[in-house]
Amino acid sequence: MNSTLTIAIPKGRILTESIQLFSRIGIDLSGMLDDSRKLIFDYPDQLVRALIVRATDVPTYVEHGCADLGIVGKDTLLEQDKDLYEPLDLKFGYCRMVVAEPAGLATGDDPTRWTHVRVATKYPHVAEQHFAAKGVQAEIIKLYGSIELAPLVGLSERIVDLVSTGETLRQNGLCEVETIAEITTRLVVNRASLKTRHQRIRGIIDGLEAILG
């Protein structure tokens, strides 16, 4: 049996912080920062292979067994609802998923009285579930970027999006009215890999858990 573990990690801030985290448990993936075009990095001396994948694709690679482990934001996991084992909150990349609306609308608005809303978002599944749970009929408009623009041009009254400081919302005349979820980066594991390579994967989980406190 091939004992090499495959880890899927997205580019950007998550990649840098993941590499720092793995280095603290003796897994050196620093070579991933050296070549911006390479997508597969083999570390045979460590029995590790690392893949650079789009953040939204990490759960798919892990669910289908192309990667044993993955690093991904909780927002992606909530939206996709894949069949994965999620053992660990890695405690970085903190932000919030919120409902926001124009400040002028928010002044006299009461979310508990909403019956119908039109919402623009990158997260239609999460938004639909959130409003359905509140008994609110929601017209969801899927966008891929610049979500804050939608209320400004009349595409929607409200948005569901990620915020960290909220500064982008403020600059566009929007304010938060509800928090749907707090988001951090998570470790996910393929369920079959957890059984067939239990000792190795459990060692990584335990090692990360120990340094994260």
UniProtKB/TrEMBL annotation:
Domain ATP phosphoribosyltransferase catalytic: 54-209
Catalytic activity field: 1-(5-phospho-beta-D-ribosyl)-ATP + diphosphate = 5-phospho-alpha-D-ribose 1-diphosphate + ATP
InterPro entries documented for this protein: ATP_PRibTrfase_cat, ATP_PRibTrfase_CS, ATP_PRibTrfase_HisG, ATP_PRibTrfase_HisG_short
Pathway involvement of the protein, from the record: Amino-acid biosynthesis; L-histidine biosynthesis; L-histidine from 5-phospho-alpha-D-ribose 1-diphosphate: step 1/9
Keywords assigned: Amino-acid biosynthesis, ATP-binding, Cytoplasm, Glycosyltransferase, Histidine biosynthesis, Nucleotide-binding, Transferase
Origin: domain of life: Bacteria
One Pfam family recorded for the sequence: HisG
Annotated localization: Cytoplasm
Family label: Belongs to the ATP phosphoribosyltransferase family. Short subfamily.
Domain notes from UniProt: Lacks the C-terminal regulatory region which is replaced by HisZ.
Quaternary structure note: Heteromultimer composed of HisG and HisZ subunits.
Name of the protein this chain belongs to: ATP phosphoribosyltransferase
